[in-house]
Amino acid sequence: MRTRSVLLGAAAAFAMAPAAMAERGSDGEVRIIYWQAPSIMTPFLSGGTKDVQASSLVLEPLARYNEKGKLVPWLVEDIPTVENGGVSEDLTSVTWTIRDDIKWSDGSKFTSEDVKFTAEYCMNPNMGCAQRTKFEGVESVEAPDPQKVVVNFDKPTPVPYLAFVGAESPIIQKAQFEDCTGATAPECTDQNFYPVGTGPFVVTDFRPNDVIQLKANENYRDPDKPAFATVTFKGGGDAAAAGRAVMETGEYDYAWNLQLAPDVIKQMEDGGKGVAISGFGTLVERIMVNNTNPDPSLPEGERAVVRPHPVLKDPAVRDALSMAIDRPLLVEIGYGQAGRVTCNLVPAPEAFNSDTFDCSTQDIEGAKALLEEAGWVDTDGDGVREKDGLELSFTYQTSTNAVRQDFQALIKQWWGEIGVETELRNIDASVFFGGDPGSPDTFQKFYADLEMYANLFPGTDPQAYLGNYLCDKAPTPESQWQGENVSRFCDPEYDALHAELTQTAGLEQRAEIAKQLNDMLIRAGTLIPLVHRGRLSGKSNTLGGVVLNVWDSELWNAADWYRKEM
């Protein structure tokens, strides 16, 4: 089928074309649409992918991963290693050498002081930086001269490429943000909406959850790039409208995250204006299981820290919820060839994919028997099991999206068959994935029993990603509700094993520990994996230079985009 050909041929069909002989800004406007609208232009105050990717047009890291998952220098001369002297023999420090042609968009010099400040900004304990795990184990960052950055670790660190690597860990300008640290960081609207960056574009107008206007950065290091003079970045709506706007009407050039059924994608491609592009990385659609008590009668702060959940603390309940799900059917109706069944949080690279669990077969009767054995029975005949005065009745929330609402409806039906009552909620994606500490509806606050979404990790090593489940990474009022441990899972044994991973060298040994960590999370019922999703986006036939990257921001090489002649 067409979707399969897109998946298998994406790398070949959309490999970088020879650069057009163009001057900066000569190709006019490029129009991008994300149906999850960005709410901020910094990844440090939002864990939402939409915000990370939008900000990647402006803010850049020292190094990043290319479309093959290879670590490549970006704002630095090379990747430091032990062999070239960039990583110390005892693995306790890494030295980055900044290129001498990097300027901020305001024309000032990019220096090591900006890098040092970025670390201090995110590591500030009063801030609640959304990317704090990237700096796990960092003892200090030094700037011995304008071009040198030395990152010191508190112990030998075999993989020192977390801080300042990838779209989630870019550099911000010290001069712009030095008065916006700690608890005041979210209040700095101008800085957070209009960051000075080193990337190919500069924000000229930012409307949260709506439209971003950008222009070419006149101080960008390549004098011939970017080819586009302006960017219109539209947010909001839904995935179907975004896909049609590129592949049917041609109103936009690039549409991100087309979370749509395969037949819908095929119909859009038949419009003749664009094509779908896809590739498998580490993206997993999952249901997060709340380890706290989301009872609205509790004070707001306690809803984030009270443990355990009165019902979901029972492992039989968590296991039964997972057993009742028909994952192959979810893949078929939701993603087709752009999806695979997974039982893991970390499905890729293959070396890190655990084979401990088999969740590929739905087992309704087994789930019923498990609940019966655990004492959950329907004594009053209303179809809902209860025990000790508590009912198997849950609120299950996710973002507004056709595929996700289809998933919710099916899962509610299956859970109903085993005696579980489910209230469904869907929240606008711009709000759900936003970083507003005042909103009760963000995925970080998790004011529900269960919630569904997908995320991934940049690069090919899951150390920082697995570090998101450390005890101290749970969002709280004190952290401005930032933090990736949204389920509030906490296990000292997990923390200790993760610490071992940070000190382990060698792919085989690291993979073994990572799989053990993955298995601990699944066994504890912290999340219920559903689908290993391919990244699926839409590209106009007239847009050249696009190289889909499943290991970093999809907009990673926007400086190389150009308008093709048709």
Describe the structure.
The structure is a single chain. With 566 residues, this protein is of the alpha+beta class. The protein has a domain of 244 residues: Roll (Dipeptide-binding Protein, domain 3). It contains 16 helices and 20 strands. α9 packs antiparallel against α11. The longest helix is centred in the C-terminal third of the chain and has 17 residues.
Shape assignment: globular
Span between termini: 26 Å
Share of β-strand residues = 15-25%
Provide the low-confidence segments as ranges.
Answer: 1-20
The CATH fourth-level homologous superfamily of the domain at 280-378 and 390-534: Dipeptide-binding Protein, Domain 3
**Number of DSSP helical runs:** 16
CATH C-level class of the domain at 280-378 and 390-534: Alpha Beta
Secondary-structure content class: alpha+beta
Mean pLDDT over all positions: 92
Fold-level CATH name of the domain at 280-378 and 390-534: Dipeptide-binding Protein, domain 3
Helix content, binned percent: 10-25%
CATH architecture descriptor of the domain at 280-378 and 390-534: Roll
User: What's the Cα radius of gyration?
Assistant: 23 Å
Profile the largest sheet: 11 strands, mixed
Tell me how many strands there are: 20
Short description:
It contains 16 helices and 20 strands. It has 566 residues and is of the alpha+beta class.
List the helices and strands and how they pair.
Elements: H1 2-13, E1 29-34, H2 49-55, E2 63-65, E3 71-73, E4 93-97, H3 112-123, E5 138-145, E6 148-153, H4 174-177, H5 189-193, E7 201-206, E8 211-216, E9 230-235, H6 239-247, E10 254-255, H7 262-269, E11 274-289, H8 302-305, H9 315-323, H10 327-334, E12 339-341, H11 364-373, E13 386-387, E14 390-391, E15 393-399, H12 402-417, E16 421-427, H13 429-432, E17 450-455, H14 463-467, H15 492-502, H16 507-523, E18 527-540, E19 543-544, E20 562-563
Parallel strand pairs: 1-9, 1-10, 15-16, 15-17
Antiparallel strand pairs: 2-3, 4-6, 5-6, 7-8, 8-9, 10-18, 11-17, 11-18, 12-18, 13-14, 19-20
Helix pairs in contact: 6-7, 9-11, 15-16
